[in-house]
Amino acid sequence: MAEAPGTHDPNFLPPDIPIPRDDGRARHLAGMKLPDLALPATSGGAVNLSKLKGRTVVYIYPRTGVPGVDPPQGWDQIPGARGCTPQSCGFRDHFAELRALGVANLFGLSTQDTGYQREAAQRLHLPFPILSDAELNFARNLHLPMFMAAGMTLLARMALVVEDGIIVKAFYPVFPPDKNAAEVIAWLRSSR
Question: Which pTM value belongs to this model?
Fold first, then answer.
């Protein structure tokens, strides 16, 4: 079901978007130490995920859309591309539950610049920062799955559970994106 030009609603998940398959590009992540890098944050300043103590959840997404602004041509046909706003809103809606399960830090992460991310964080009322990996240093250091669309190098959707700078669980592929937070919560409960 295609949207009419100029009517894009990033909150809406079409029922016929393709399901991403597990291509194995995230199997290496569990047990890896996060790179010692400072990433710009929508809250101001920078965050070095490798230095954070306790449990951190980082959900990773390709790019947040803007209401009324058409997504890149063919976006809805790319498995795993559509759904960044519903994924972010899921983590927003489950923020208190994640904290109650011992998540000390929650972040979103994409390759968009901080200014673009800040608009989305404010519009969506996110109670946590979004981090920018616009230079792809974090992604390349960890060999994160990426894809190209409309001349942009984008990160494939996933979520990482990190303990004291070490990845303990990688959720990949993520589908449907609006259920990613619930999937992370279920794993956190089962691993207590």
Answer: 0.95
Answer for the pair 129, 10: CB distance below 8 angstroms, yes or no: no
Q: pLDDT tens, 5-28?
A: 777 778 888 889 999 999 999 999
Whether a cis peptide bond, with omega within 30° of 0, leads into 176 is yes
Q: What sign for the dihedral angle of Cα 45, 94, 126, 168? A: positive
CB 183 within 8 A of CB 91: no
- CA–CA dist 107, 132 (Å, integer): 10
Cα–Cα distances in Å, from 188 out to 9, 93, 123, 136, 181? 31, 16, 28, 28, 10
CA distance 50 to 48: 5
Q: Per-residue confidence at 92, pLDDT binned at 50, 70, 90?
A: very high
Q: What are the distances in angstroms from CA 119 to CA 1, 16, 78, 127, 191? A: 27, 28, 25, 13, 35
